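#struct-help
A.M.: can someone run this one for me? Single chain, 255 residues.
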Amino acid sequence: MTDNPNRGTSARSARAPRRCVVRAVEQLSPRMKRVHLRSEELLGVDPVGPDQRATLLFPENGRFSGEPEEMARARRRRRTYTLLDLDPETGSVAIDFALHGDGVAATWAAAAEAGHELELTGPTGRMHLDRQAPCWLLIADETGLPALEAILHWLPETAEADVHVEIVDDAERRPLPVREGVNLTWWQREQHGAGAGELIARLGPHLRVRPDAVAWVAAEASAVSTLRAYLQAECGLDRRRVSATPYWRAGSTGS
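D.P.: on it. Structure tokens below:
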């Protein structure tokens, strides 16, 4: 029931760092920014899955100086993000950044403009769920939205899906590829007086989980752990039918 996560990209090429240059930036919502990048070193690099990811290094002042000390500091501040629209023909890719806090990635993204740089190592793939499964349960917070959008594009037209997204408020809604058979629910923390990750942790009783479903979850670490346990213990889903990935951890400055 698996897709090969490394099909199209050798292990060696996935580990190779690639210097990317910002082509354009796009404000998706008050707290989410999409950065479009290009690199000659991405030419011929194929996508590896809908939730493909890469490790990023950020310069301190928009562009890398080339000094060994700067690169050493950058390696200590590496972050992992979802890659969108990777095109091996043009060497282009896009990354969505949540603009919250003063973490290294959020700070870089807030100031990003054409000509700025970052270094990317990847892509690597995580998806191990069967694309032909008839029924899906997809759950994410803001950090998982980019991968969720890619998965919705990737699903066959015949697949049914229940989709749940936790966001801070209505301003963070964004268009998603919803069609017949895909039911989307937005959960707003502002409406429920909840902190980040809390609504997903409490989502279990609100879910409709068919025995033939496969589940994908991407959110705050403790919420992911709570929901994974619920899906397996209370809903009876085999662990092989659940892909639950912590994208961040509450209290961490990892953004």
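A.M.: thanks! Residues 1-12 have pLDDT under 50 and may be disordered.
D.P.: also worth noting: The helical segments are 11-15, 68-75, 104-111, 145-154, 189-192, 198-201, 221-233.
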